[in-house]
Specification:
heterodimer; A: 512 residues; alpha/beta; Amidase signature (AS) enzymes; 2 domains; globular; B: 98 residues; mainly alpha; Histone, subunit A; two-stranded antiparallel sheet; 3 helices; 2 strands
Chain lengths: 512, 98
Amino acid sequence: MTDLPTDLTRATAAGLADALASGAISSVEVTQAHLDRIVAVDGQVHSYLHVDGAGALAQARSVDDRRRAGETLGALAGVPIAVKDVMTTKGLPTTCGSRILEGWVPPYDATVVTKLRQAGLPILGKTNMDEFAMGSSTEHSAYGPSHNPWDLDRIPGGSGGGSSSVLASFQAPLATGTDTGGSIRQPAAVTATVGTKPTYGGVSRYGLVALASSLDQAGPCGRTVLDTALLHAVMGGHDPMDSTSIDAPVPPVVEAARAADVRGMRIGVVKELGGEGYQPGVRARFDESVALLQELGAEVVEVSCPNFEYALAAYYLILPSEASSNLAKFDAMRYGMRVQPDGVDAPSAEQVMAATRDAGFGPEVKRRIILGTYALSSGYYDAYYGSAQKVRALIAQDFASAYDKVDVLVSPTAPTTAFKLGDKLEDPMAMYLNDIATIPANLAGVPGMSIPSGLADEDGLPAGIQILAPATKDERLYSVGAALEAALVDRWGGPILDRAPELGVAAAAKGA
Amino acid sequence: MSSLSRDDVAHLAGLARIELSEAELDRMVGELGVILESVAKVQQAPTEGVAPMSHPMPLTNVTRADVVRPSLGAEAVLAGAPEAEQQRFSVPRILDED
């Protein structure tokens, strides 16, 4: 039996699952401990947009009752989770970090949420994000940014900065994310947590508010590789409600995480990801991780992906193009906000729509919709969107030839550690560069994971290493991630989050 | 390399049904110019003879069995509407006066 820490919020999801299964603790206890932690620290971190204490406790009680009745339950039954606010939750607000959806309560659950409920994971609340997942810092959330628990003046990454900061501040043992260009992996890297973007189609997109449908992929977030694998197994699998869902079983991710074996594996270091523009401390931790993988029995070679150089440009044409189409549904007619234009008598539907979208969308969303509208205009289509689609094919070819030579690829996850809130807000291109290493995987549809590689010497902040595998071979991420994690934790003498500063605890929660 | 004028951006915002203020327009012209210059890099890639890729998975005609299944009721669907009337979405006028 795993030794559980006295503070249940410090336990791993796997440890909690074991203790729940043995009856050593109840789901109500675990859930209440996290609700207390939320009261104590979320005033500073601002990870949650909505907390559902009553709902979470009711789910927890139901799991406890079923377990007492001798029912066979899923591996994570009773382990609470935080859900990114881009996933629809029946009866719980879903805003995507946007004013235009303020107060919207969806009439249905996303398939991922249905799976969580069926697996018995109490939902603690909805996590903050950049508006409609457009951003790398949560600063584009209409409800204010989340803060990095390592330094509250810094960004927790984005768009899934609510989920990453929830994990790093022990406000939930697990969280869900979505990754269109890095929104699971980059937040994981800057908070020293773990996140996986599965193969495109590996997790259902039904009930996810779409950003760019050919790039969007939901995935698991955790503090350890095994926890992340356990959640991946719950979230993944075929869904007839999503026509792009892969009709095959979830890859054996949990088995791979438990085996944690890289002996004989061929690992390619992507030459184009990691040179100029990457912070020295990020590179140093990456190089050490690669050396460790070699010591663990993997064969490491350098691999070139020459067209990755064009990935960022292609992405910032394809994404805005798809987003401009997807976000056209926010028309002030069927759900969300409706604003009347100033000084117009009996305004038309078109005028109401335009006034609503001006009031309801933030600057980054407007920027990307207008950019996408331009890229798709006749006369510019071939030069922009058409060229970007060809670059996308070249990037997929780069991956294909790389995977002829190696089993997985590795790179730093993000070029820098967490920057200060406000630092890049006025410079969209500088913000976009955060995703330079994560975007190629979304363009090609291959799976990727970020795990902590250590703290950068120059600022003491977390850095991440990214692992990329061929499509549908998600289990390889977990083999490499778990092996490296074990070696690094051994070297550090404990989990990296033990080194994060203690957050001040709000007075109201003391003794709760 | 084409760059966007203020009029271009105003026209695009109209197409996208976003009413921008004068200040927003001014800001957007500069920002979009910088972004467009950067993304135009796709035109330098060796794309000669490359077929465009729209999607990571080569899927066609994904269908389901032609059977009736439950859907959301009118009440649930209309619950989030800004305005509803007689079990329908209530919308502003859609035609011009003339």
